[in-house]
Amino acid sequence: YILLFFILSFAGWLWEISAYLVIDHVLVNAGVNRGPYVPIYGIGGVLLWLLLQKFYRRPVVTFFLSMGICTVVEYIGSLLLDWIFGMRWWDYSDRFLNLDGRVCLLAAVCFGLFGMLQNCFLLPFYMRLYHKLSVKMRTVLCIVFLLFLVADVTYSVEHPHVNPQVEQAEKHRE
Question: Whole-prediction pTM value?
């Protein structure tokens, strides 16, 4: 689950920087931490795998359950980041059907689509590759990634990654 967390966190980071690049034409290192990952995607993705893997042959069920689970994770994540750092990293106030600007329908639908893609198609493939790695290699990768995460989170708690380009992109949209 540790390796899965990092792969999904990295995929979330790629999604975030791609979205800013396409929408705002700005290359942004999105997220709270300095590293190339956004942990909320890893948390949500692992949670989806744990809760929904039995539905991997039922894409429509997986889609709707992913929408709900990820929307709750995003809302709680927004509250926690606000509480810990005293600032918001995203605001959906201008989006249709938003709740306190922390979640919205468009994001929920995207989470549903990605959750369905992840659980029904990508993770079965990932599991086959994962089991081809030796236990020693998996252990080493987990330790290295965890040490990097602990160092990055420790630094980021004191010095949160606030990217002025994100703020500029948000203002540009208004």
Answer: 0.82
